[in-house]
Amino acid sequence: MRSFARHCGGLRGLCAATTRSRLSTSPRLAVPTATSLPGLPSRPRLLHTTISSQRSRKDAPKEPPPTDLNELNVLGNTPAPSTSVDVCTYDGFGLNSGVTITGGNGALLVNGEAFEWRPWEAKGVMELYNKKGQFELPKEAFGLFDLLWPRPDLLVIGVGKTNMPLSPQTKQHIAELGMRVEVLDTRNAAAQFNLLATERGVSDVAAALIPIGWKEGSGAV
Predict the structure, then answer these.
(1) Helix, strand or coil for residue 209?
(2) Three-class secondary structure of residue 7 per DSSP
(3) 110: which strand partners?
(4) Looking at 35-49, 80-94, 105-119, 185-199, which range is the least confident one?
(5) How far apart, in whole angstroms, are the C-alpha atoms of residue 91 and residue 211?
């Protein structure tokens, strides 16, 4: 003991060396070794487990049911007007009321009433287009609106199988009657009239439709 103390610089050096030895040992590094006593079952080590972040399908939130687009149709329960167009035929039209217009005649749908429309008779020839490829009719072709008051706010014109522009003269005359105008091919014009007449009423929207089989010089026969 004396020789050991002498080597460490005396008793004070021995105490200092012992203190440094204790301080240099970190508690975190001093991990005891698990031992088993004789006759007792060994205890398993406790491990910290991390719960899987991936959820099972049972825990997944339920998806909302698919949207029925028919439920979004606010006009679904509104009855269609009797003058709505059910079918466009080669030489005429079939209306929701059961009325059919045939023989190559057009249809004038005004204020809930349906009329056969032959605007070419106002021109004296079987022609509806001018030399510029525009749909052009004289004032007499819209004579019914001169007798009607109040007039519709919008006139939808179906110009035949394919769309074409309205001539400035015809557009000006319709504007003088106090109506706005929308020009489409006949199928789309009929669909547009059906929608707007159902939404706004037949008193606000009128239609003037030419059969889809119309041909310049011979008509729809």
Answers:
(1) strand
(2) helix
(3) 113
(4) 35-49
(5) 5
For residues 25 and 37, give the distance between their C-alpha atoms in angstroms, rounded to a whole number. 27
Q: Tens digits of per-residue pLDDT, 77-106?
A: 678 899 999 999 999 999 999 999 999 999
Q: What is the per-residue DSSP string for 160-193? A: SSS--PBPHHHHHHHHHTT-EEEEE-HHHHHHHH
Return d(Cα 132, Cα 216) in angstroms, integer. Answer: 14
CA distances from 37 to 43, 44, 176 (A): 10, 13, 111
Closest CA to 205 of 145, 155, 137, 142: 155
Q: Provide CB contacts within 8 A for 210, sequence distance 6+.
A: 106, 119, 128, 158, 159, 160, 186, 220
Residue 19: other Cβ atoms inside 10 A: 10
pTM, full prediction: 0.66
DSSP class of residue 130 equals -
Alpha carbon distance 220, 186 (integer Å): 13
Strand partners, 208: 108, 157
pLDDT in tens, 157-166: 999 999 999 9
Q: How far apart are CA 220 and CA 116, in angstroms?
A: 14
| Structure token pair of residue 162 | 């394919």
Strand order in the sheet with 85-89: 85-89, 92-95, 100-101
Q: Are 102 and 91 in contact (CB under 8 A)?
A: yes
Peptide bond just before 61 cis, omega within 30 deg: no
Q: Which two tokens stand for residue 105?
A: 């005649």
